[in-house]
Write a structure and sequence with these properties.
With 340 residues, the chain is α/β, with parallel strands linked by helices. The N terminus is likely disordered. It folds into two domains: 298 residues, Glycosidases (TIM Barrel, Alpha-Beta Barrel); 39 residues, no CATH class. It contains eleven helices and 14 strands. It is globular, with a radius of gyration of 21 Å. Helix 7 packs parallel to helix 9. 35% of the residues lie in helices and 23% in strands.
């Protein structure tokens, strides 16, 4: 009897996790690919096998304003399209991801006179471009699409409305739509605004992805670690109730960089991890200070223990697939991240 009850509960969880992702497991191990060229090394492929990563989130392209791309006749256009030198693994759940700038959403700002024409047009163009790229580079079945945008309360109405149009197109083909959620956006989720028709805004995604990285003030010289510091995360978790979110997955940082300041403490630049060692050695000669930052295992674990959304089955995603960064973490540390 207990086993029968367990099976019923497990089946129910699969059904409610997303009404348009039939067969998609509720809990998975995932990793982001965020490079401009898809050409994973053998080490990176073996790393995914070793840690039983079942879901690969691949950024396909960015969406920017037409003005930014010298296409003034268009409000939104694709840019920074990923070059594929290898096929995507057909034996994995591959989730195409599109990053949309907040300026592109402002260009598509809600206007009751033209929204009915422009929003569906750009939603169709977005979905078609995803379809075309995945048909060329992936032999598996796409069951989820993810949109990433750092929207604000000023752009929330336009963003949510555009997302609804995209979701309608995907749902017709039984594809789930997920969307990223940054900590500062929890305010809009916890206390949604009332729109001009008297309806409360709500998260329009089937699944949310809570991004637990880039949590601090990057350019402030007194910041301890802008990538992830639990002291920056904790106030958000205490202030906002996350029960209103759709089923929530979580992403954590497994990358690093250097933040350079001049002798007056003014921010100068961000140094990627591949150039960090040389710059650290020469900082005294150049009279600068470099704050080295990484996704620290202790801070990730503290964050994991505090997140109430993790009481439910979810996908843990690590950002991102890069051998130089991932090799800094032990097998046991990666397993601990995934096993929460």
């Amino acid at each position: 009897m207990k086993r029968f009850t367990y099976l019923l509960l497990a089946a129910a969880e699969l059904l409610v996790s997303c009404s348009h992702d039939k067969g998609l497991p509720s809990a998975q191990r995932g990793v982001y690919h965020w490079k401009t060229t898809y050409d994973p090394t053998e080490w990176e492929k073996e790393w995914m096998k070793e840690h039983r990563v079942g879901r690969l989130y691949v950024k396909l392209f960015d969406v920017v304003t037409g003005e930014a791309a010298n296409e003034p006749d268009w409000k939104m256009v694709p840019e920074a399209t990923t070059i594929f030198k290898q096929k995507l693994p057909a034996d994995m759940d591959v989730v195409p991801v599109v990053y949309i700038t907040v300026d592109a959403i402002r260009a598509l700002e809600y206007d009751e006179w033209d929204w009915s024409e422009s929003a569906p047009l750009y939603a169709r163009l977005l979905v078609k471009r995803i379809d075309d790229m995945m048909a060329e580079h992936y032999d598996g079945t796409v069951r989820e699409v993810q949109l990433d945008c750092d929207w604000t309360d000023q752009t929330e109405t336009a963003w949510f409305s555009f997302v609804h149009k995209v979701k309608e197109l995907l749902h017709k083909r039984n594809i789930c739509l997920s969307g990223t959620l940054r900590l500062h956006q929890l305010h809009e989720v916890a206390w949604p605004r009332v729109d001009r028709w008297g309806d409360a805004d709500s998260i329009p995604f089937d699944r949310s992805l809570l991004m637990c990285y880039n949590t601090g003030r990057l350019q402030a010289p007194d910041t301890r670690n802008s990538i992830l510091d639990f002291d920056d995360v904790e106030p958000y978790l205490k202030q906002y109730i996350l029960d209103s979110l759709p089923r929530t997955d979580v992403a954590y940082p497994v990358y690093g960089w250097g933040v350079e300041f001049d002798k007056q403490g003014k921010f100068q630049r961000l140094i990627n991890s591949r150039q960090l060692s040389d710059n650290l050695r020469s900082q005294q000669k150049r009279d600068v200070t470099i704050r080295e930052e990484w996704g620290e295992p202790g801070e990730i674990r503290r964050t994991q223990r505090a997140l109430p959304v993790l009481d439910n089955p979810h996908t843990t995603i690590l950002y991102h697939l890069d051998s130089l960064n991932l090799s800094r973490y032990s097998y046991e540390e990666i397993e601990a991240f995934y096993n929460r």
